[in-house]
Amino acid sequence: MSESAEKHRQQAPRQVRCAVVTVSDTRTPDNDTGGQLVVDLLENAGHLLAARDIIPDDPDRMRSLVTSLAQRDDVDAILLTGGTGISRRDQTFETVSGLLTKPLSGYGELFRMLSFQEIGPAAMLSRAAGGVMGRTVVLSMPGSPAGARLAMEKLILPELGHLVREATR
After folding, report:
1. Model pLDDT for residues 59-104, shown as the tens digit of each residue
2. CA-CA distance, 65 to 85, in Å (whole number)?
3. Is 40 inside any structural domain?
4. Is residue 81 within 8 Å of residue 146, measured between CB atoms?
């Protein structure tokens, strides 16, 4: 790692205030294993859960909720699970991409590269996307526990504080 990247990491917040949103027409608090995994991994890493929602895969509802969360003073990052595939109902990519003021193309590219190493060419079906909306980090990932774990452990948790630092300066 470069000296500059390491310096930025050292200056990054150790505790990030996160909203976790599950986008699904079928998930409930009782069966949302992917969303709950994201919450558990965040909290185990010392981050704070500022909000937790489960909403249908509806662009208007998603847009409204993400916009509202991004305006809150107690939310540094919004993590969305679900709706990243290519089925007719999967709208997370289009909705999130339309809200970003600064896309992070590398996030989705790296997720698919890592996913390819685990599941092969089916990784191309994931449309994980992320970036910054104003001063709030917004990252989407698959709703499956395996996809959520991969995104969280390999990409999000190692850089979350650094992402927030850069987005807010």
Report:
1. 999 999 999 999 999 999 999 999 999 999 999 999 999 999 999 9
2. 20
3. yes
4. no
